[in-house]
Amino acid sequence: MTESQAMADEFDTMAKWTADAVESLGPDHAVPAGCRGSGSPAALEWLAERLGLRSGLTLLDSGAGVGGPAELAARQFGVAPVLAEPMVDACRASARLFSRPVVIASGERLPFAAHSFDAAWSLGVLCTVEDQDGLLSELRRVVRPRGAIGLLVFLRAVPRLPTQPEGNHFPSSDELAALLDRAGLAVCEQAALADFAAAPEEWQTAVNRVDTVIEQRHGHDPRWQTAQEQQQLIGSLIKDELVQGTLVSAVATS
Ligand SMILES: C[S@@+](CC[C@H](N)C(=O)[O-])C[C@H]1O[C@@H](n2cnc3c(N)ncnc32)[C@H](O)[C@@H]1O
């Protein structure tokens, strides 16, 4: 199993299966099922408020996945989101579920002119990227001067992890500070993901129903098994507090 195949199973194939399952179950499942890896709605709302998201503003979501967080920001805060995501089937899944503009692009090479967006966020993406400096400097480049940038980063809380999902490179807290500094980004506020309320029951029920349909349809498929293993690994690292989610709102320093 190569690193890129494991990532494709987790982020591309699963995205397509998620969209298929949501289409069977109904549109009220779309946002919860499309917010995989981005924490609770309370955490997303906190970040959206810190970034000052509101009607009339544009928001780039870099590494948007299935598109749930961007959709939540659009529905609850009125922003116009644009999604960028390197996995083709994830782009197709978000287009099917939410019909928002989406481009196939890596966060390290965004196909947008400088200062194209009022704000940008990238949720649960930094640790899946080798060129972490590149991802952050691109976010800074495409956001207007003094525009807000939001991150959800999973940090390594110990010097060495016993194991980690394929393709993940969790920075330490000090490494994140150095990355932000090199990108010319100043932290405005930071919060621990663990401190936010869990998702409400109806949200979790929707996620569980989608998961059940996917397992019934694809549980025999090795790609489903790989995706499960990847998700269980990160889940157990978080549960054991070896990896901790942190939300960051930042602005360019100049
Ligand atoms: C844990 S998921 C989070 C998805 C989404 N942001 C969310 O919170 O629901 C990580 C996402 O990062 C994407 N990704 C992987 N490498 C990337 C890169 N180089 N640039 C941008 N996104 C990338 C994956 O395809 C996946 O959709």
What does this structure look like?
By secondary structure, the chain is α/β, with parallel strands linked by helices. The protein has one domain (3-252): Vaccinia Virus protein VP39 (Rossmann fold, 3-Layer(aba) Sandwich). The chain has nine helices and seven strands. The protein has a seven-stranded mixed sheet, with helices on both faces. Bound molecules: S-adenosylmethionine (SAM). S-adenosylmethionine binds next to helix 4. S-adenosylmethionine binds at residues 11, 35-38, 62-65, 68-69, 85-87, 90, 106-108, 123-125, 128-129.
Compact description:
The protein has 254 residues and is an alpha/beta fold. The chain has nine helices and seven strands. α5 links the parallel β2 (80-85) and β3.
Average predicted confidence as pLDDT: 95
Overall number of structural domains = 1
Total count of helical runs of at least 4 residues = 9
Q: Name the structural class.
A: alpha/beta
Identify the bound ligands.
Answer: S-adenosylmethionine
Strand content: 15-25%
How are the SSEs placed, and which strands pair?
Blueprint: H1 3-25, H2 30-34, H3 41-50, E1 58-62, H4 68-77, E2 80-85, H5 88-98, E3 102-104, E4 117-123, H6 132-142, E5 143-156, H7 173-182, E6 185-192, H8 201-218, H9 222-239, E7 243-252
Parallel strand pairs: 1-2, 1-4, 2-3, 4-5
Antiparallel strand pairs: 5-7, 6-7
Helix pairs in contact: 1-5, 1-8, 1-9, 3-4
The structure holds S-adenosylmethionine.
